[in-house]
Amino acid sequence: MRKQMLKGFTMFMLVMALALATAAISANAQSLKARANVPFDFVVGDKTLTSGDYTVATITMAGDTLRIASKDMSQTAARLTITASGTSSQAKLVFHRYGQQYFLAEVWTGGGDRGRLIVKSRKERAIEKESNRVAQLKGHAPESYESVAIALN
Q: Less Cβ around it within 10 Å: N or C end of the chain?
């Protein structure tokens, strides 16, 4: 009987420790949920999303995966992110523009917080590589992307 009580107490303490650790991790996770009106079509990963109102939200406890969804949820994309160096006082989405194609590149929550960098898609890396190759053939410095920022609400 005593062994069973000790075993039950040990299991109870283990469950409580796990619950406490989970609460601490979720409290420290960088949570994000914001809205933006994007006036142009853009690419997130392998998906092209049309212009319109979008919500941006973290979908993992650690905040390393973002979900971008249209207002009516008809268009969604998720992408892995990494922590950006530096901070920004403004909440914004930053896009890389190559010609007429826009790629979501960064998400900043503002208030001096660190931002999140979107891992470049295969398509963006290919366009970047091609523009560098063309620039070298023409004999001038490569024209990289232009950054375009949209405010988050």
A: N
25 pLDDT above the threshold of 50: no
Question: Around Cβ 7, how many Cβ atoms within 10 Å?
Answer: 10
pLDDT class of 26 with cuts at 50, 70, 90: very low
DSSP summary character for residue 116: E
pTM of the model: 0.74
Own/partner pairs, 50-58, CB within 8 angstroms, 24+ separation: 50/75, 56/32, 56/93, 56/107, 56/152, 57/32, 57/33, 58/29, 58/30, 58/31, 58/32, 58/33
